[in-house]
Write a structure and sequence with these properties.
Elements (H helix, E strand, L loop, with lengths): L1 E2 L6 H13 L12 H14 L2 E6 L4 E6 H15 L1
Antiparallel strand pairs: 1-2, 2-3
Helix pairs in contact: 1-2
Length: about 80
């Protein structure tokens, strides 16, 4: 389920983004960026619609996923339902 990031408390959203960037599965290239810079980049992706806050009912967890990841999940779900 997609959760509109605008509906989250400012501090909650910041903590969620910070947790996401600290997992460091995120590739920012060869250049090092500060945590604040990474948080700002992810926040911009949320604002642009390139990323979204996703609640997994199966895992009872909240994370940030890219638009492409969400489309792939939807495609996989549709394929499994057939």
């Amino acid at each position: 389920m997609i959760i509109p990031h605008q509906q989250l408390d400012k501090d909650t959203l910041y903590n969620l983004i910070e947790s996401y960037v600290l997992r460091e599965g995120t590739d920012y290239g060869e250049q090092e960026f500060s945590i604040e810079s990474k948080v700002a980049q992810v926040h911009q992706q949320l604002n642009n619609g390139d990323a979204m806050v996703f609640f997994s009912e199966l895992h009872e967890s909240v994370t940030i996923i890219s638009k492409n990841e969400f489309k792939a999940m939807q495609s996989e779900e549709q394929h499994l339902q057939q």
